[in-house]
Amino acid sequence: MLYIFNAQSELVLNYGKALLQCLAFSGILLSATLAMTGGIQGSGATRLPMIIAMVSQFGVLLGVCEVLYLLDMLNIYRIWYVILLAHFVRYILTLTVFQTDGWTKTRVEITPHMEIAE
Predict the structure, then answer these.
(1) Cα–Cα nearest to 61, from 36, 87, 27, 35
(2) What is the spatial distance between Cα 38 and Cα 102, in angstroms, rounded to a whole number?
(3) Are the C-beta atoms of 65 and 7 separated by less than 8 Å?
(4) 47, 86, 99, 117: which could form a disulfide with 60 (CB 3.0–4.6 Å)?
(5) Which CA distances in Å does 58 have to 23, 41, 89, 111?
(6) What is the DSSP secondary structure assignment for residue 7, as one 8-state letter?
């Protein structure tokens, strides 16, 4: 895949290989997560998926990157692995919510549409 973009530098190839290895797993986790999130949100339960997304993005992704930065250990490889970790955490949290039946009992109140007088 890297050769499609004419990547010839050894450094670029090494970065690309590492990224594609992370994305191979991350893509599977994210696809499953988004499918479950769609079902949960489709039932009308939107708060839990929002909280899960915030925890995985702000708490895990930014939090771990900040700690690695403060320890002077942040590099491109670790960022990609932290992205993979954030997707894994999001998957586990979403799976936990999906396996409960609380979101299936969400009541959605729809008010009747009022016609506008012309």
Answers:
(1) 87
(2) 15
(3) no
(4) 86
(5) 20, 21, 12, 35
(6) -
